[in-house]
Amino acid sequence: xxxxxxxxxxxxxxxxxxxxxxxxxxxxxxxxxxxxxxxxxxxxxxxxxxxxxxxxxxxxxxxxxxxxxxxxxxxxxxxxxxxxxxxxxxxxxxxxxxxxxxxxxxxxxxxxxxxxxxxxxxxxxxxxxxxxxxxxxxxxxxxxxxxxxxxxxxxxxxxxxxxxxxxxxxxxxxxxxxxxxxxxxxxxxxxxxxxxxxxxxxxxxxxxxxxxxxxxxxxxxxxxxxxxxxxxx
Length: 233
What we know:
globular, alpha/beta, 12 strands
């Protein structure tokens, strides 16, 4: 009998094709696996609406096994719309107009789906690791400011292992108490009990989209696919 695994991806930013390719590379099985996205599904990239439809349909089929965490870009969008456009400049400065036009191109307005985005949690907790979009100060996500969860860039962290995105690096990194090292790709390794694993490798900027697979025996692997984006957005 095939064993379930946890797959973690992050910062898709409308890179739909790379997302599908990465999930195929990780042998994603939606029937038994758990999929966690660490936020920032919208803005910047070429196929934002298609990414939304794909994730929404996965969520409908997988239920609680599909966890879509809120990133700063989802938060900027929600703030801009909920506050009558007062924060629209901030969102548009961060490529919000690409999201607006992507939905309009498919004859929809993103306002139709606000409830779906508002349902995204700020964090996800398991017995062995936590997941947030950006960073943690306190190992307990509930004890952190929302600003830290979705905007933070701190790396001086030594608490319970946390998976993060938000800050793009050339390669996936492991941080522990201010020290860091590269994570070798496509190699099974024992999941550390403490520290921070940073998985955003800047796909939308032309680098790579990185994912993580965690098995129930406590081992993990990171792997990636090359971006199809030819220039910065």
